[in-house]
Structures are given as C-alpha cells and as structure tokens.
# Entry
Amino acid sequence: MKQASCFTLLLAAGAVHAHCWAPDAAEPISNDGLPVKHASFKPLHAAMDQFEAQAKPNPGLLALPDVRLRITRAVLDSDEPSRRPREAVIHAQGFGPETWTGKGCDIHAEAAQRIGPRAGFSVFINAPLATMNRWAHDEQLSAYLEGERGEAMQGWPVYRGCAVIGPERRVPWVPVPVGEMLAYFEREQQRKIEDWDRSNKTALQPFDLAAAERKAEQIRAQNAQAAELLLMTARQRKAGEVSLHQQLGRNRQMLVGELDDLRRTRAAMSAEQLAEPYRLGTGRHRLPTPAEAGRPLKRLVKLDPSFPWDGRNRTRIQLLTVCASAHPDNPAYARPMRDAVAALDFGRLAALLN
# Structure
C-alpha cells in the first residue's frame, strides 16, 4: 500500500511534464554482439537521425494526450547476412503516466518495456518481414501472411498500417503460387506420415506372448500375484493385437489418403491455375471455395528472390517501413496520430534509399 502511495505521488509530481521528450534509449549491443554505436553502423544511425529530426517537432506526436515521448534505437543483423544488409529500427513513442518516474521527463525502462507505448511511430530499416507473420516453413519454402492492404500514405503502398518505401515503390515480396503451396502441403503431409511411422513402429510389431509367459514363470516363486498380473496383461494385449493393428492401419491410411488427395488436386489443375497467387480460403487445402472466388482473401507471400539486396554493403539503406500505431481502446489518440502521419515527409525518408 505504501509503495502504491509513493508511486501515486511520483505521478502527481511529474504530471506537468507530459508532452516532453525523455532521454533517448538504445539497445546497448546489436544482436550479433557489436556496440550499438559501432563505427560501422554510422550510415544506419545517419538514416535514423533523419527520422528523429522529423519526429521531435512532429505536431501530432506532441499533441498526444498524457504521454512522455522517447526515441529508442536498435541495430540488428539480417537473418541472411550473406545476402541482405543489416537491419535497424528507430521508435518515436509516447508512454503513459504508469511508466513515468522522477520529476523531470524520465521514463521507467522496465515499466515501459512491460506496459508498452500508447502511440507512436516506428521506422524499420532493411526489414522485409516488418509487416508479416510466418505462416509456413520448411527447407524449400518460407511463406508469410501478407499484411492487409491499406490506403496509401503519400503515395506509398501500405500493408498492415505501415508504409513500405522501396526502390521504384517496389515491395520485397511476391505471391506464393498455388502450385508451390500445394507442393509444400504434400511435403508436410509426407512428413506427418514419416513421423507416424516412427512413432508407431514398436506398436506395429507382433507382441511376443511366449516371452511374457516365460517372464511370468520366472518371477512366480518370488511373487505369484505379480506373475499373474503380468500374464493377464500380456494375454489381454495379445488378444487385442489384431484390432489395434487394424485401427493403426486405418489411421495411417487417412494420412495417406490426404496425401493422395493433394496430389490429385494439383494434377487436376492447369498451369495457369497453379501459377495463380495462393489465397487463404475455407475449401479443401485452404483453397477458396467457388463462393469465395471474388472476395478479397488474404494472400500468402514469400521474399522476392530477385529483390536487389546488397549483401556486401552491410549498411546500405534499401528498404524503409514506416509504421504508425495508437492504442486501439483510446480514440483520443486517433486524431493526433493522423496529424502525425500527415506531418511526416515521406519524400525525405525515401531519399535515404541508396
């Protein structure tokens, strides 16, 4: 109770210090162990400086009610370092009173991490997956659920509420064709069959009742009750063996039948149908039903292998993803964030691409 009272007093003392900028924060090291201020990261920080210069005086951010604002930076390595440059992210975010501390404009780091911001911007550098969630993955395909397409921001395409700024307004992903997705499902089903075979290998072996009977006789002199229990259990198992194997066979055949159906489905499609973008429907193999043919269903996409990533110049700026967010349960943030988006100069950000 005493701690809660002290926290309330701190909030009251700091309440007049809303709409101010707290000291910048940064992850101390990159995710591959280099200091965030490492000299090799200078081009990434120069790009983040450009965004910070727009964010600090942004009228929409400054109009957010009951927040203290903070810039946070992080430098990351790519998951394909031989092919893609490094990634980085800068956040300009507003944190509510429950994260405030001190009499100035400080923000409690742990509270901010636990509770999160109420609204703000994030700019992701060279992060092609910033707007997507992985949906399927194996050694041949990584498929992602494409973010919902939104209204363009200053002419730039928007997915999942984020403007994607790429060379020649190009996004770094392409649709997964129907044929490629069905081939993935076939591999996945084959893996299920192989896993089933491994899991049931012992259960499908004939049970050696004679060996169990010999074991029971060996222990009878020491423990007749245990010997009888062992014998009864063994005979029950042997008696149900045929039924068990039949049920296991039916279960396996269901898996095989699904694989056969996938193959028949793919074989029945024309080359044009197999080349169409795969959209998530409610039919067999998640294909669209006839009733869904004209609906705007979500697409699965994959990273575009032809996107001109520069893996040799690790700090080259090739893609920017600008995301604006506001707490969904508080409409007071909607208008300021619309103004904040309008005040951003996407042209200046696009000029950072090289």
Q: What stands out?
A: Residues 122 and 148 are 18 Å apart (CA to CA). The chain has two domains: 2-176+304-350, 179-270. The chain is about 40% helix and 20% strand. Confidence is low (pLDDT under 50) at residues 1-16.
